[in-house]
Write a structure and sequence with these properties.
Elements: E1 4-5, H1 6-13, E2 16-18, E3 24-25, E4 27-28, E5 38-41, E6 58-61, E7 73-75, H2 79-89, E8 105-106, E9 111-112, E10 117-118, E11 123-124, E12 129-130, E13 135-136, E14 141-142, E15 147-148, E16 153-154, E17 159-160, E18 165-166, E19 171-172, E20 177-180, E21 185-188, E22 191-194, E23 201-203, E24 208-209, E25 214-216, E26 223-225, E27 230-231, E28 236-237, E29 242-243, E30 248-249, E31 254-255, E32 260-261, E33 266-267, E34 272-273, E35 278-279, E36 283-285, E37 290-291, E38 299-301, H3 310-320, H4 323-340
Parallel strand pairs: 4-5, 5-6, 6-7, 8-11, 9-12, 10-13, 11-14, 12-15, 13-16, 14-17, 15-18, 16-19, 17-20, 18-23, 19-24, 20-25, 23-26, 24-27, 25-28, 26-29, 27-30, 28-31, 29-32, 30-33, 31-34, 32-35, 33-36, 34-37, 36-38
Antiparallel strand pairs: 1-3, 2-7, 21-22
Length: 342
């Protein structure tokens, strides 16, 4: 396992080192469990009492918490971000593929950059372009004329349909499908007539997509995901959706067709966004949000009923079913009061 000295870490993080810079750390651990050779972090001052018993070789913390830890420390502005940076430096995740497996099929017209790796039973079809250092995991399918940018990694069994464009430094987890047909049909006297989906999917740089997510190709125009977007597991992004720079979307979310999501939005898990609406930049939608109309201003939005004991929930549900009746009665009372001049 790779190791790094605290002095080297301080230099890479722009941190103030307090203690012995020659000490080496090889892994990260939680504050309560970290031991010799490990580094931990404290991002919330309300847990600073844990530092007294912390046995880590070093702790990343803010200046205001430094006096509560007697050992080696890296003083930083944002311990959580530094935790992420150190996790990258000490990452032991294996490559999705090494070299080019003999069982992989690569069409002679495909263009491969330098140091490309392709796993067993992967299929690379005609006209595909793979940038330098691309990793294609076992069992992946890359359709005709697709393009994948440099340093992008696909884990096993990812499917990239024809003409899809995936940018640089992206990460796609297993069993995700990018570029499947959008849900487009016309109805002729009760019979469904399929509308071929003639657009594609264009994904920017530094985009991460979780496992078992589906991103549909556009009907006429393209489905577009801009740079620095993170998308969780088991999500459905329909045809012609646009997702702006830096947006984060948690697992189980469904986005219907032609919806446009702005920059730096945060979409909580299991949310549902109606089609043909627009979400402004900087909007946060809390978990299980049901968004039926456009949101035109930055802010936090919620919907749904919080969990209650079953007996209370049944009462709430029964009252909700009577809201229309109660509204009519309230209006009648207001009318009577108005007529009486009260």
């Amino acid at each position: 396992m790779a190791a790094i000295t605290l002095a080297e870490l301080a230099d890479k993080l722009g941190a103030e080192l307090r203690g012995d810079g020659s000490v080496e750390v090889h892994s990260l651990a939680g504050t309560a469990k970290a031991g010799e050779g490990q580094i931990t972090f404290l991002s919330d001052s309300k847990y600073r009492k844990m530092l007294a018993e912390c046995k880590a070789s070093a702790v990343m913390l803010r200046a205001g918490d430094a006096e509560y830890f007697a050992g080696n420390a890296l003083i930083v502005n944002d311990p959580y971000v530094c935790y992420a940076r150190v996790a990258q430096l000490l990452d032991s995740t294996p490559a999705a593929a090494s070299d080019i497996a003999p069982s992989a099929f690569i069409d002679p017209t495909a263009v491969l950059g330098q140091n490309v790796s392709i796993g067993h039973n992967a299929v690379i079809e005609a006209g595909v372009r793979l940038g330098d250092n691309v990793q294609i995991g076992a069992g992946c399918f890359i359709g005709k004329n697709a393009e994948i940018g440099a340093n992008t990694k696909l884990w096993a069994n990812v499917t990239i349909y024809h003409n899809v464009v995936l940018g640089e430094q992206c990460l796609v987890q297993s069993s995700t499908v990018i570029g499947a047909d959008g849900f487009g049909y016309a109805n002729e006297k009760g019979e469904w007539v399929k509308i071929p989906q003639l657009g594609t999917v264009r994904i920017g740089n530094r985009v991460e997509i979780g496992a078992c997510t589906t991103i549909d190709r556009g009907a006429l125009d393209d489905t577009i995901i801009e740079d620095n977007v993170i998308i969780d597991n088991q999500m459905q992004i329909a045809h012609n959706v646009q997702i702006g720079y830096g947006t984060a979307m948690a697992g189980g979310t469904i986005v219907a067709g032609s919806t446009k999501i702005g920059k730096y939005c945060i979409i909580g898990g299991a949310s549902v966004l109606n089609g043909h609406i627009e979400i402004a930049d900087g909007v946060t939608i809390t978990g299980m949000g049901m968004v039926m109309r456009s949101i035109e201003e930055k802010g936090m939005f919620s919907s749904g009923i919080p969990l209650q004991p079953n007996r209370e929930w049944r009462k709430t549900a029964a009252r909700v079913m009577k809201i229309d009746e109660m509204n009519k009665r309230l209006k009648a009372v207001e009318k009577q009061l108005t007529e009486k001049g009260e």
